[in-house]
């Protein structure tokens, strides 16, 4: 266990008149933090520093000669992370859950249409139950790499409606004691799937920088996380979609990329952002803002203590 950080149950809170923000540590399962001891040291440091959550990424395979365009670089290629080790996110989260007690465990993102929704619902519920409840955050995406879908034997073109259906199926399994669901891609009748999450739900955060992702967040998300910047136009798209679906857009939590200058956090809060995501590994064209557990702890003292939500 890392020592020397003066933090107790949570951040000290924002100074008067400043933003009260949550902080997530993103790209936490990559690089050297994909290994057991380093993963635990990082997660414990994040918890001590006052990060509310720690976030993984996912690709099952990356075909070497892919032609799909990567959405986060001008070249359309993933670059150095194409052959980077990317641990399975749920196994990584389960590994660090046993060495932490409060920090939430998130996927940013899980490629939902690639996974069996019943098996995935069971895995996520088991993790949340064993971790003490209210600790798992399901960040979801539809995927962009057609060749990965082909390698898994899963159709690519229907991944949007498949994702919506799978989310509805998983929520049914989490909320109903004896669950029945009939959808275009998933169906089951009178099944027990236990343990269920202690609260009967796992928050679903929709990731993506597209208008379709923003609309999906408005229709069905508990949260929205565009991967880059502070795209106010996408927040507005999400809010319009929520209102059209009869939902309260203020109930959808927005997470955004952390600015390099912490002074910009107050402006993010005014845009409706309630969590900033701090990269600990360089990935997807973003440099790390912290690089090791010691810098994570320092970020807690210098930034989270000032701007963090109490």
Description of the molecule:
The protein is an alpha/beta fold and 310 residues long. It has a single domain (22-307), classed as TIM Barrel. Helices cover 34% and strands 16% of the residues. It has helices at residues 36-49, 89-97, 117-130, 146-152, 159-175, 211-220, 232-244, 265-270, 293-307, and strands at 22-26, 53-56, 104-107, 110-111, 136-141, 179-182, 187-191, 204-207, 223-225, 253-257, 273-279. Helix 2 (89-97) links the parallel strand 2 (53-56) and strand 3. Helix 1 (36-49) runs parallel beside helix 9 (293-307), helix 3 (117-130) packs across helix 5 (159-175) and helix 6 packs across helix 7 (232-244). The longest helix has 17 residues, at 159-175. It is globular and about 50 Å long.
Rounded mean pLDDT is: 93
Number of domains: 1
Q: Which percent range describes the beta-strand content?
A: 15-25%
Write out the strand line-up for the largest beta sheet, numbering strands in chain order.
Answer: 1-2-3-5-8-9-10-11
Number of discrete helical segments: 9
Task: Count the beta strands.
Answer: 11
CATH architectural category: Alpha-Beta Barrel
According to CATH, the homologous superfamily is: Luciferase-like domain
Structural class: alpha/beta
Largest sheet composition: 8 strands, parallel, barrel
Q: Which CATH class is shown?
A: Alpha Beta
Distance between the termini: 23 Å
The low-confidence parts are 1-19
Order of helices and strands: EHEHEEHEHHEEEHEHEHEH
Q: What would you report as the Rg, rounded to the nearest angstrom? A: 19 Å
Helicity range of the residues? 25-40%
């Amino acid at each position: 266990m890392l020592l020397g950080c003066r933090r107790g149950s949570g951040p000290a809170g924002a100074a008067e008149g400043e933003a009260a923000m949550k902080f997530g540590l993103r790209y936490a399962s990559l690089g050297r933090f994909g290994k057991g001891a380093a993963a635990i040291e990082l997660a414990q440091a994040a918890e001590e520093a006052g990060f509310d959550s720690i976030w993984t990424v996912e690709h099952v395979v990356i075909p070497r000669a892919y032609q799909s365009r990567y959405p986060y670089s001008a070249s359309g290629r993933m670059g150095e992370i194409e052959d980077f080790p990317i641990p399975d996110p749920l196994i990584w989260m389960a590994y660090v859950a046993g060495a932490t007690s409060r920090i939430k465990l998130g996927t940013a993102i899980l490629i939902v249409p690639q996974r069996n929704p019943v098996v995935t619902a069971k895995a996520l519920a088991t993790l949340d139950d064993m971790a003490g409840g209210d600790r798992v955050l399901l960040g979801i995406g539809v995927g962009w790499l057609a060749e990965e879908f082909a390698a898994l034997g899963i159709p690519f073109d229907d991944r949007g409606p498949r994702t919506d259906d799978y989310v509805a199926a998983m929520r049914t399994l989490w909320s109903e004691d004896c669950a029945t669901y009939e959808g275009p891609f998933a169906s089951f009748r009178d099944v027990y799937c236990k343990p269920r999450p202690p609260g009967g739900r796992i928050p679903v955060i929709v990731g993506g920088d597209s208008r379709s992702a923003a609309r999906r967040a408005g229709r069905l998300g508990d949260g929205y996380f565009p991967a880059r910047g502070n795209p106010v136009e996408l927040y507005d798209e999400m809010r319009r979609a929520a209102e059209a679906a009869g939902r309260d857009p203020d109930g959808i939590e927005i997470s955004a990329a952390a600015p390099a200058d912490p002074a910009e956090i107050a402006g993010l809060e005014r845009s409706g952002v309630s969590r900033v995501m701090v990269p600990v590994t360089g990935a997807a064209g973003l440099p790390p803002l912290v690089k090791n557990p010691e810098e994570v702890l320092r970020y807690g003292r210098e930034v989270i203590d000032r701007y963090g939500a109490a």
